[in-house]
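At this stage, I needed to go through a protein sequence along with its fold in token form, as given directly below:
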Amino acid sequence: MSVLYDTRSAPGLQKRAVKHEAHRHTTLPTRAASRYNNGLSNLGEILMAVFTPLSDAQVAAFLEKFDVGSFVALQGVAGGTENSTFFVTTDRRELVLTLFEQGEHEELPFFVELLDYLDEHRLPVPGTIHDREGVALHSLAGKPALLFPRLPGKHPSAPNLAQCQALGTTLGRLHKVSQRFPGHRPNPRDLHWLRAVHHKVLTYISPDDQTLMKNEVDDYESAFNQHGALPQGALHGDLFRDNTLYEGDSLGGIIDFYNGCTGDLLFDLAIVINDWASNEDGSLNAERYHAILSAYQARRPLTETERTLWPTMLRMTALRYWLSRLLVVYVDPPAHDLTPHDPERFRVILKARIAWGALPIPEASS
């Protein structure tokens, strides 16, 4: 069995209450200022990316532990938020090097195990690269570090129906496989979290929104208490468009699993629909919605309980992002000089789900 991490050298990481909420950028309207942003029209702009600089010599020495070839070039990636990410070129391949700036070091082996498990099952994820002794997690510049293969493609800002279908197919496969994943990490953004944390932002929002938020949490508890357990498995936990890579219509990679956890598979699917299939006014885009769900169900058909709770889960995951973004704006700002994302986007989506509900769930595509 391969060793997942090197406990001799990797330091602990400082805890943070809110992770990875400052980097969503694919659905945020940029035309009008929001109630939350003091006149700024786009809260998703990345102001920094590399928080721990590395020299060519540091990376070249680091690569000597791995069978990946000799160092050629290093480039910082202008897309990180809490982690420092670099593209590394060797004389044999293209790689991604990540330094973990925030989070809990104790949880990193879960992410390594999950990525390696999915990679072994031929899912398009960046399985970690282990060194010659079987170690994946190392320390570099005093930070935990992982090395990955660089996957092909770019983020789809306006995904077409073929791209939506490819995502649905892959997510269905991932969820079917992940039901047998032996690791465990409770969902850190589930209903228990909503109940425990939502009061922290109530003083910052309008009385109507306070009532909305409190009533929604009560409604979710009532709905889920009336039904049995939902199908469980490993989740991506944050599968927005900017966590996918496409070459044309082909899905080349699913990345950024650092919100990964185990829990309700329906939770993961609802996050996808709210980002990938929402119009500007928050309403559901019927074509994208059907493309994703029909392809997904061809791989993992939804149960009757999942179908019953589907409208509730769409609302709950919309509130999950509204709340987490409010927390970043008002309670727990980013550790670095980053502009948070606008909470308004998911308030709009939540109100649309309440007003119009969910579209009918399509049957599986052939």
Remarks:
- Strands lie at 71-76, 83-90, 94-100, 138-140, 143-149, 232-235, 244-247, 250-254, 261-264.
- The CA atoms of residues 282 and 352 lie 5 Å apart.
- The mean pLDDT is 87.
